[in-house]
């Protein structure tokens, strides 16, 4: 081998070695950066998980009272069937009972978006109750009136559909529990405004859907007492007692009507 070639060979090997060292060093730096980044992310996740466990997000405490158990059950029912107005009503009223009014308002907004069928009447019952509990009586009355109108339209559409399919259906065949509740709530709001005639009319409308509703008869009887119409009040209390002989509010009302 020529002397010049022998002189160049160590220089080439040295350059290759230097390049290898630099490349290896670069890889080591990248690896270190990735390791640190992964460590930071893992640490952050563990911190969040730890806080969530402590706060009860991932491991919620067991219900301590009947009210808490009811709320948990209602929340589960909504999660299982988010389009069911009855489930939302139970959840909203449970939140109200627990004095979680901000969450109740959020649940109302969610329910109004999620429920598209006639079970929205159940949600509207809860809305009226919520508004009244917040002292928004005028808004509650407006909501009750709108909800009643909407439910009556649902009922007529259902009757029309049944009859179109050859079913000889009467309106009494369609459940009216929540409609009755709306009429009762409306009467309470009107009674508060001392609009006694309108309050009586609302309860009379409710009785068209359940003529054996002792509680509704009794409520009307008490409004009659406020109006000084003791004979009408006595009649309502007596009729209520025909269906529930030991109904305490009716018994008390009958005693007051006889004074």
Question: How would you describe this protein?
Answer:
- The chain is mainly alpha-helical and 259 residues long.
- Among the domains are: 9-60; 62-116, no CATH class.
- 78% of the residues lie in helices and 0% in strands.
- The chain contains 11 helices and no strands.
- Mean pLDDT is 84; it is low at 47-58.
Please write out the topology:
Elements: H1 3-55, H2 66-80, H3 85-97, H4 101-114, H5 120-133, H6 137-164, H7 177-192, H8 196-207, H9 214-226, H10 230-243, H11 248-257
Helix pairs in contact: 2-3, 3-4, 3-5, 4-5, 5-6, 5-7, 6-7, 7-8, 8-9, 9-10, 9-11, 10-11
Radius of gyration over alpha carbons? 35 Å
Name the helix and strand elements from N-terminus to C-terminus, one letter apiece. HHHHHHHHHHH
Distance linking N and C termini: 136 Å
Number of helices: 11
How much helix is in the residues? Answer: over 70%
Strand elements, count: 0
- Which residues form runs of ≥5 with pLDDT under 50? 47-58
Give the integer mean of the pLDDT values.
Answer: 84
Shape: elongated
% residues in beta strands = under 5%
Q: What class, by secondary structure content?
A: mainly alpha
Let me know the largest β-sheet: none
């Amino acid at each position: 081998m020529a002397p010049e070639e022998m002189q160049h060979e160590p220089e080439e090997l040295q350059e290759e070695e230097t390049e290898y060292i630099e490349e290896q060093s670069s890889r080591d730096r990248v690896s270190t950066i990735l390791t640190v980044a992964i460590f930071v992310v893992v640490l952050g996740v563990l911190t969040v998980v730890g806080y969530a466990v402590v706060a009860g997000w991932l491991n919620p405490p067991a219900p301590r009272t009947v009210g808490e158990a009811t709320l948990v059950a209602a929340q589960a029912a909504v999660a299982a069937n988010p389009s069911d107005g009855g489930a939302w009503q139970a959840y909203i009223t449970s939140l109200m009972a627990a004095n979680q009014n901000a969450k109740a308002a959020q649940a109302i907004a969610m329910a109004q978006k999620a429920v598209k069928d006639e079970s929205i009447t159940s949600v509207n019952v809860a809305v009226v109750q919520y508004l009244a509990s917040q002292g928004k009586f005028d808004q509650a009355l407006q909501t009750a009136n709108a909800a009643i109108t909407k439910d009556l339209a649902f009922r007529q559409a259902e009757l029309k559909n049944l009859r179109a399919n050859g079913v000889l259906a009467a309106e009494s065949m369609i459940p009216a529990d929540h409609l009755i509740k709306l009429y009762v709530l409306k009467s309470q709001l009107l009674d508060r405004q001392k609009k006694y005639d309108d309050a009586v009319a609302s309860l009379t409308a409710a009785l068209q859907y359940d003529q054996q509703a002792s509680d509704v008869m009794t409520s009307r009887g008490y409004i009659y007492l406020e109006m000084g119409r003791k004979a009408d009040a006595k009649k309502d209390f007596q009729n209520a007692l025909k269906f529930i002989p030991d109904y305490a509010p009716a018994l008390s009302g009958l005693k007051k009507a006889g004074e």
